[in-house]
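Ticket #4471: structure output looks truncated?

Reporter: J.K.
Steps to reproduce: submitted the chain below (484 residues) through the standard prediction queue, then opened the result file.
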Amino acid sequence: MNCARCGAELLKGAKFCSKCGAALPREHAVPYGERPTGPQVPTRVLLAVGMAAAGVAGLAVLGFLLTNPFAGGDTEIGTTPVLSPTRPPSTLTAEPTAAPSPTPTVTPKPASLTDVAAVAARGGHTCGVIQSGGVKCWGGNNYGQLGDGTITDRSTPVDVVGLGGDVAAVAGGFGHNCALTTAGGVKCWGLNDFGQLGGGTTTDRSAPLDVAGLESGVAAITPGGWHTCALTTVGGVKCWGRNGHGQLGDGTTTDRASPVDVVGLGSDVVAVAAGYFHTCALTTAGSIRCWGQNDGGQLGADTTDLCTTDRPLGRFPCSTTPLDVVGLDSGVAAVAAGAWHTCGLTTVGGVKCWGGNNYGQLGDGSTTGNSTPVDVTGLESGVAAVAAGYWHTCALTTAASGVRCWGANKGGQLGDRTTVNRTTPVVPLPTGVAAISAGYSHTCALTAEGGVKCWGANDYGQLGDGTTTSSATPVDVVEAGPAR
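Returned output as attached by the reporter:
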């Protein structure tokens, strides 16, 4: 069969002329569904032949192939085209929609501790008497000294169990604390390896324990390093606990798990202060008397006695009974005892210190120890209170109720933004302070508004700010939990 237009011979089953591209009559095409017979030539080959033979006419063939749905690709001539009933879905993936940024979670800042009536810093922990009742403590708790029934350190205040609204004062030692009740009784808790809790045993306690025989009749309390002393309402002094340096003042070096009387102090004492291994008392005459260890001159008097301690450190100068501090037989209003030094507040508002001075804790501009009292530079007057830490000292001034500190400063306990030891006073808080207390290597102040600010070492959480980060500037003690 030949093409009606150009006369070229047609291949059987072809749909168009391979020479001129003319469409063929329907009857020439292979019926739908039948396969053609004879050789089968791919349409791409026919396209190439047609374009070569017809030149421009071949372009019509190309256009036909591109637009005719039945003449596509490499489909064999005459094969039935497979038509999809619907257009297949696109395989393109839509660009993902960016998820909205999460709203940042803002943690409320804890509220500052308020309603505090008194503060006591000692060792690596701190306690405060709450005006509404009870006692809260924070910091190191390896001996149960926080009194919350556990031995877990706390970086924010926790309640001391069993102490309600009947607490008049609280005071701290190296690893123990004691509270004075409104009834004049004494309760202690924490480390008890030398009987310093006064309950007749040497078992540590994580909750308050009554001191034997002192359920009433006590006016003030002062825990030391590993001993405790109490001022009675009749002006006497009783002590208990460790006594290897004669710090109990009973004429012996025997440890006591219950209170004993300090000899020679019958009824003329108005205040008492326990250091780490020595103790001092302020008399009604305004004089100071001290006893216990004296290797740094902290008793304020020369001694010839030597005490054999329970540690392998040899024999130390000491006195097992009270001695008068040289040069302070009158004119003293308060006394404070540190580790190896002692300070007195005079009735004219000056501060005098004596004893060890290797870190400048005497405040006289030197690091030379002195067994007789020396004036603290710049504080010959204008001081309302004094507090002695392990190797540093602080004073509360009458002018603007500010704080001055001097001595060791490795932990930042002087609060002057440095860790440089100071032999003369620096100013951590210029105003607004009602009371001051010095610990081992931290210091705390009770503010006029009833809050507490602390500074210095914080490895146990003793600053009470919810962290264990030391601070060379004052930080607020906060409540446990978020702001109210």
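Triage note (M.O.): checked the attachment and the full token line is present. The domain at 116-476 is CATH 2.130.10.30 (Methylamine Dehydrogenase; Chain H).
Status: closed, working as intended.
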